[in-house]
Amino acid sequence: MAVRLLDRYLWRQLRDVFAFGVAIFTTLLLINHLFFVGRLVLQQESSLPVAVQLVVFRLPYFVGFSLPMGMLLAALLTVGRLSDGQEITAMRTSGISLSRIAASVVAAGAVVSVANLALNELLVPSAEERYRHALAVALRRPAPAAQRDVLFRDVQDGIESVYFVRRFLRDEQRMEGVVVNQLERGILRRVIEAPEARYVGDGWEFRDGAMYVLTGEGTVVTRFQRLRVGLRRTPQEIALPPVDPSEMSIRELRRYADVIRRGGGDPTRYVVQAHFKTAVPFSAALFALLAVPLGLRPHRSGTSIGLGLTILVLIGYYIISSITLTLGESGRLPPVPAAWAPNVMLALAGVVLLWRADR
Questions:
Q1: Which of 25, 53, 283, 358 would bridge 66 by S-S if both were Cys, CB 3.0 to 4.6 A apart?
Q2: How many beta carbons lie within 10 A of that of residue 147, not counting itself?
Q3: How many Å apart are CA 71 and CA 45, to the nearest integer?
Q4: DSSP state of 246
Q5: Contacts for 260-269 with beta carbons within 8 Å, 24 or more apart?
Q6: Reading across the β-sheet that carries 159-169, which strands appear in turn?
Q7: What HEC string does 308-346 produce?
Q8: pTM of the model
């Protein structure tokens, strides 16, 4: 479908401010990280290449946060500037409703939402994994000898294995309470459960466990005393800094939640984060919706007011998100409302303000 002249005009106005906003917010997020990297270089005597890796591999994570914020800033400043220049009035006089103008801005926000979702799913997880490896090298600090509830994934010959270890003993080269979900092309094919697994020189040996093969028509159960799996990581490699759920992709969170559930653990935190990781990218479209009526407000110093409104909306959004997430992860609020409540509030505020402005 051809993009109408109005949409092309509005999107062109949004584009430059959006790029500026993403650059500004990413830089602000990076500044604090640069101080952290600087301390590592000075205190741990980390090499310059490792310091560069810590910045480069962290960048996609920050860009993911900056995209919705950049969209909010772009929509506020663009609508404010068009309003001050009487262009919005001219559009409405020529028969273009405010809702039609808002639809174009929200469509641009939806494009940003999809791009943000793709970034978080396709690039951020691999970049974060490399970041953690670089951080372990920079810290030069031995991992704890014992860890609980260790989660990691491994891919061998097209088979993705998601591991949940109830207790990991690095020095004894031993894992306790192990559950493994093995997937082929994203479909769960096998589940391996074992009370114990030991590192035997060149690989891991699972002991006294069971393997469940999902054939599609049923499940074949095989008991075993000794089973070698394709995991090639050494105990030192498994003992890398743990991955925070907020740094995982939606797919990883859902798979980890399944494995934890099978292992008898509580996956609430991972389920809440999976919903939240889905909700946050869509905030870009909702920020755009809210920005249209806010940008129409009469003011004399457009840029400064736009920046101020951007900061206020962002602070409000992230305060509400922090509260609902905490309630969700503690089990006091179901995962879906915990993750989506801030977006619902944004949408309601945007619709009500737009309706009042369009009367």
A1: 25
A2: 16
A3: 39
A4: G
A5: 260/149, 260/151, 260/164, 262/164, 262/179, 262/181, 262/191, 262/193, 263/164, 263/166, 263/177, 263/179, 263/193, 265/149, 265/164, 265/166, 268/328, 268/329, 268/331, 268/335, 269/245, 269/329
A6: 146-156, 159-169, 174-184, 187-199, 204-214, 219-228
A7: HHHHHHHHHHHHHHHHHHHHHHCCCCCHHHHHHHHHHHH
A8: 0.75
Q: What one-letter code names the amino acid at 172?
A: E
What number is the average pLDDT over the span 89-110? 90
Give the DSSP letter of residue 241: P
Residue 244: what are its φ and ψ, rounded to 5°? -80, 140
Residue 279 CA from chain centroid, whole number: 10
Number of other residues whose CB lies within 10 A of the CB of residue 325:
23
pLDDT digits (tens, 9 = 90+) for 179-236: 998 888 878 888 999 999 998 877 889 999 999 998 877 888 999 999 888 787 788 7
Which ranges of the chain does DSSP label H, i.e. alpha helix?
5-43, 48-56, 59-84, 87-93, 98-122, 124-139, 235-238, 250-262, 268-295, 302-329, 335-358
